[in-house]
From TrEMBL:
Pfam families: HTH_1 (PF00126), LysR_substrate (PF03466). PROSITE patterns: HTH_LYSR. InterPro entries: LysR_HTH_N, LysR_subst-bd, WH-like_DNA-bd_sf, WH_DNA-bd_sf. CDD domains: PBP2_LTTR_substrate. Keywords: DNA-binding, Transcription, Transcription regulation. Belongs to the LysR transcriptional regulatory family. The lineage of its organism: Bacteria, Bacillati, Bacillota, Bacilli, Bacillales. The gene is ykuM. Gene3D superfamilies: 3.40.190.290, Winged helix-like DNA-binding domain superfamily/Winged helix DNA-binding domain (1.10.10.10). Residues 1-58 form the HTH lysR-type domain. This is Putative HTH-type transcriptional regulator YkuM. The keyword Transferase does not apply. The keyword Transcription applies. GO terms for molecular function: DNA-binding transcription factor activity; transcription cis-regulatory region binding.
Length: 287
């Protein structure tokens, strides 16, 4: 089998849909169907069966798809190890990043990185910090995570950003006791949610009168910016262009600012790769 055949089997195994797989592989559906038939003839067994839900793997197909993925992964690791011995920085940089970092902080960093190292391919996964931690145990080169996770490998503190109450009207936290607008929250990992809950209960006897929960932090921010309610947002999500809102930093009972830490996680083996070393060095330059 050719390398392209392994890619076809791997993508079909992920998508289980001929149209989506064809789009990812940049081929027509008829061409992909014909290629799949040739592969099945070569193996002398069907790999998929069609159903109302799409395409289901046969037992033999599951084993062959697993073999294809393993072969592609071994090839990529071999290529990366060869690249590590050469002066040119290229290969694939696998990043797993907390969603909020991927949305507000990472783009500027990546812009500089890809301009400096144009031969490097970027593989980016975003999600909650708990999901990023899981990804790092499986395949990530670098994880950027919120909070302070338990990690046995190399771990570097990147920055701490302060939490702010954001609203178009409120200028003092004392006004919250009698404020009628809803508290707008975005879904986040449990540690962030607990920090907000602890701060609230340490300062106010009652819970917010009304609450709106949204999926994305940017939705939360835009609702606050447009005067629908107030929100508690980390400063990494706020910019100098956000001039039409009041930003009140949160403090604990001792008067210290309440912050949210961001950490970089990696593996000893990953740090031997030139594309990984280059990314970490870039962050050290910008620190």
């Amino acid at each position: 089998m050719q390398r392209s055949d392994f890619q076809i089997i791997s993508v079909l195994g992920e998508e289980k849909n001929m149209r989506k797989a064809a789009e990812r592989l940049f081929v027509s559906q008829p061409a992909l169907s014909q290629r799949l038939r040739s592969i099945e003839q070569e193996w002398d067994t069907p790999l998929f069966v069609r159903s109302k839900r799409g395409m289901d793997l046969t037992p033999e197909g599951e084993r062959i798809v697993a073999f294809a993925r393993e072969t592609l992964e071994k090839e990529e690791k071999l290529r990366e190890s060869i690249v590590a011995d050469q002066s040119e920085v290229y290969g694939t940089l696998k990043l797993a990043v907390a969603t909020i970092i991927g949305q507000y902080w990472l783009p500027k960093v990546l812009k500089t990185y890809v301009e400096r190292y144009p031969l490097v391919k970027i593989s980016l996964v975003t999600g909650w910090s708990s999901e990023i931690l899981h990804n790092m145990f499986e395949e990530g080169h670098i994880g950027i995570i919120r909070g302070n996770p338990k990690w046995r490998g190399p771990k570097t503190h990147l920055f701490t950003d302060v939490l702010h109450l954001v609203d178009t009207t409120i200028t003092s936290l004392d006004e919250l006791d009698h404020y009628e607008k809803p508290f707008i929250q975005f879904r986040s990992d449990s540690t962030y949610y607990q920090e907000i809950q602890d701060w609230w209960h340490n300062h106010y006897k009652k819970t917010p009168k009304r609450t709106i929960i949204v999926d994305q932090i940017e939705t939360c921010k835009q609702m606050a910016v447009n005067g629908i309610g107030y929100a508690i947002l980390p400063s990494v999500s706020l910019t100098d262009r956000d001039t039409d809102i009041h930003k009140i930093p949160l403090m604990d009972q001792s008067g210290a600012f309440i912050g949210r830490d961001t950490w970089l996680l990696t593996h000893e083996d990953a740090m031997k790769l030139k594309q990984v070393k280059a990314f970490i060095e870039l962050l050290q330059e910008q620190a």
